[in-house]
Design a protein that fits this description.
With about 130 residues, the protein is mainly alpha-helical. It is built from six helices and three strands, in the order αβαβαβααα. It is an enzyme of class 3 (hydrolase).
Length: about 130
């Protein structure tokens, strides 16, 4: 994606997240499933495997992602773009909890910052920090 589209996605995600409470209550009944995922750490293949086995987020398929989306793996940016897109499309079915790797200082140490080495990387990184 062009940097402009990534920045637009981040802006819309930030706008959406600012409207949400600090704590989300997710409930289900016996007829519905909630898939809980954690610690993707930039491993896009893991996210694809989860979606392959459980289905994509939809009105009938809820997900809770328990943070640590970035760092360590090489595809943190791609994971965030996918998760933020699903969050905006299905705001009642996709829930993102912030992990300790969604922190600027941790990003400096474990590689997310280094992965944004594009021309617009600094601007995108600042916006990610704002969204986190």
């Amino acid at each position: 994606l062009h940097a402009r589209y990534v920045l637009n996605l981040l802006h819309e995600t930030r706008k959406h997240l600012k409207q949400l409470p600090n704590i989300s209550h997710v409930s289900t009944c016996y007829s519905e499933e909630v898939t809980v995922c954690g610690d993707l750490h930039g491993q896009l293949d893991d996210l694809f495997l989860i979606f392959y086995k459980n289905g994509l987020p939809s009105p009938s398929k809820s997900y809770v992602f328990n943070g640590d989306f970035v760092d360590r793996g090489k595809q943190s940016l791609e994971i965030l773009v996918i998760l933020f897109t699903f969050l905006l499309i299905y705001p009642k079915e996709v829930h993102l909890n912030r992990g300790n790797h969604e922190d600027h200082m941790v990003n400096l140490r474990y590689g997310f910052r280094a992965g944004l080495s594009t021309v617009h990387g600094k601007k995108i990184l600042r916006m990610f920090q704002n969204v986190f």
